[in-house]
Amino acid sequence: MLTQALIGDEGRTIELGWKDGSRSRFHAMWLRDNALDDKTRSAGNGQRLITILDIPADTRIGAASVKGGALEVSFVPEQKTVSFPAAWLSANAYDRDAARQPGWTDEATVRWTKASMQNSVPRAGYAAASHDRAVLGQWLSAVKAYGFAVMDDLPAESGALCKVSDLFGYIRETNYGRWFEVRAEVNPSNLAYTNLGLQAHTDNPYRDPVPTLQILSCIENTVEGGESSVVDGFAVAAALQAENPEGFRLLSSCPARFEYAGSSGVRLQAKRPMIELGPDGELICIRFNNRSLAPTVDVPFADMEAYYAAYRRFAELIEDPSFEVTFKLEAGQAFIVDNTRVMHARKAFSGTGKRWLQGCYADKDGLLSTLASIEHGFKEAAE
Ligand code: NM2
Ligand code: OGA
Ligand code: ZN
């Protein structure tokens, strides 16, 4: 609850006091730009109707008061009075005291290891997820928190993976097709289309932007071997940072290069770091794929030895069984990974039987949008 509003800096800032004793400062310019009235934002679609240039550069707060759980502010020289709900101010407060450390992630991201995850893999049945918004919401929210989830009870038939992407958004079509067959082939265009084991990796780091989600579904898997595993790249990156901060700095500040030119007419190239941080130090993307790493030419000569040592250590941690969650996909099962975070691997396979998986890419922004909309709907229903 909002208790107090104190104008400061000759009206250029305001300090709000909350019932729990905490305080949060806001700027007059910020508040004016984010006003919620129907002259500033369209009542219909919520989009902003004004530009920054419509706001006087010398905007100040002339008067402010707390009225019925909201903050009422009058801006000069516009002589405009608007109200901000306390809950909105609290949700949008930016006056943090602690600076965030490089590699930080938000509270919604939960890192995991084998110990915390092997016996609680998030999963849902397809029938329940497609008929019950609550079940779908829980499944999507697991993808947001942990970066992967399993789906059971799909039809064990070609194209079933589209049913999974249809639950939340859209397939991202690439040179591999709308979806692709993952099975051992003669003259494979990609090592995924063999019976070789695949080291834990993220897909398509040679693409920019990288596909943010991958779905792999199983139609048949009666071979010996061919188990799947997933590794939380954010957990591994944090472990590397803890034991070797300089190595983490090198992998996150020097670009790697990735390339795929395995089929005719395709030559994909990207230049991005293996551990990508956003401008404010947020850990935003892991790119790790031994098969498509190109020669690294953007590390200073003096740092290359340390860079390779960090790359090796990162790989050792990725292969450390304590980070690895394993399962064997059966016909009618699929899993989804956040391809910006969670790596996936498969064991080699051979012997009798057949292994036929299908894969596709999809966009995480659409998944998060569907999740937010489901959560918003539940919140409104509860009110
Ligand atoms: N496939 C399965 O990123 C990669 O090259 C991994 C991708 C061929 C679409 C395999
Ligand atoms: C892939 C892949 C794993 C598997 O197709 O990208 O990693 O289990 N496949 O075949
Ligand atoms: Zn893959």
UniProtKB/TrEMBL annotation:
Domain (Gamma-butyrobetaine hydroxylase-like N-terminal) ranges: 10-89
EC class (word): oxidoreductase
EC numbers, comma separated: 1.14.11.8
Gene Ontology biological-process entries: carnitine biosynthetic process
Cofactor (UniProt): Fe(2+); L-ascorbate
Source superkingdom: Bacteria
Key words, A-Z: Dioxygenase, Iron, Metal-binding, Oxidoreductase
Reactions accelerated catalytically: N(6),N(6),N(6)-trimethyl-L-lysine + 2-oxoglutarate + O2 = (3S)-3-hydroxy-N(6),N(6),N(6)-trimethyl-L-lysine + succinate + CO2
Recorded family membership: Belongs to the gamma-BBH/TMLD family.
A GO MF term: iron ion binding
All copies of domain TauD/TfdA-like, residue ranges: 137-361
InterPro entries: AlphaKG_dependent_hydroxylases, GBBH-like, GBBH-like_N, GBBH-like_N_sf, TauD-like_sf, TauD/TfdA-like
Organism of this sequence: Mesorhizobium ciceri biovar biserrulae (strain HAMBI 2942 / LMG 23838 / WSM1271)
Reported function: Converts trimethyllysine (TML) into hydroxytrimethyllysine (HTML).
Protein name (record): trimethyllysine dioxygenase
